[in-house]
Design brief:
Layout (H helix, E strand, L loop, with lengths): L2 H6 L2 H8 L7 H8 L7 H14 L2 H9 L7 H5 L4 H9 L7 H18 L12 H11 L4 H23 L5
Length: about 170
């Protein structure tokens, strides 16, 4: 969709289209809608980033909690968002070996116990082996560092999802 169309969308349509740019967080789309018109796709992305950055730490953790476990219950139940299903599927998280699935389940559980929110990584910018490495490595982070790292990954995911939805006017 061209940016000029984005700037003209009725409020409800804007929310419906951009509700999942930040996983299961339509409030982000609602918050930035009033910043229109956007002069560029980068300006739209910056508005989303500014909104996220202005949240209190509890709000940032809330955004992280909206993300599903990688190769977790939502994937198995078929309840992932379309975006997450595609992103996890493209790196093979939907076809793990038995050992990989056990390891992933254990890592997801340990991570959530340690930090209180799911592990978030931009799957589209990684491959399966790197995701496993990152899950192990990031377990050593301090809570504040990991919250910040998770939000950085949310912004990467948002960037790619926006690229899928919006392009500059011709």
């Amino acid at each position: 969709m061209e940016l000029s169309r984005v700037n003209e969308l009725p409020y409800e349509d804007f929310i419906n289209i951009f509700a999942n740019v930040v996983e299961k967080c339509p409030i982000v789309a609602a918050a930035v809608c009033s910043s229109r018109p956007f002069g560029s796709v980068d300006a739209l992305e910056a508005a989303i980033g500014d909104f996220i950055d202005a949240l209190p730490e509890s709000g940032k953790e809330g955004i992280l909690r909206c993300h599903p476990d990688l190769a977790g219950r939502d994937l198995q139940a078929g309840t992932l968002t379309q975006e997450s299903l595609k992103e996890q599927g493209n790196v093979g998280l939907d076809v793990l070996t038995s050992d990989e699935a056990s390891s992933m389940a254990r890592l997801n559980e340990d991570y959530k116990k340690r930090f209180g929110f799911p592990f978030v990584i931009c799957a589209r910018m990684n491959d399966k082996p790197n995701i496993f490495r990152e899950m192990h490595a990031r377990m050593a982070n301090q809570h504040e560092v990991e919250r910040m790292r998770g939000i950085e990954e949310v912004k990467k995911i948002c960037h790619l999802r926006l690229q899928d939805l919006v392009h500059a006017d011709a």
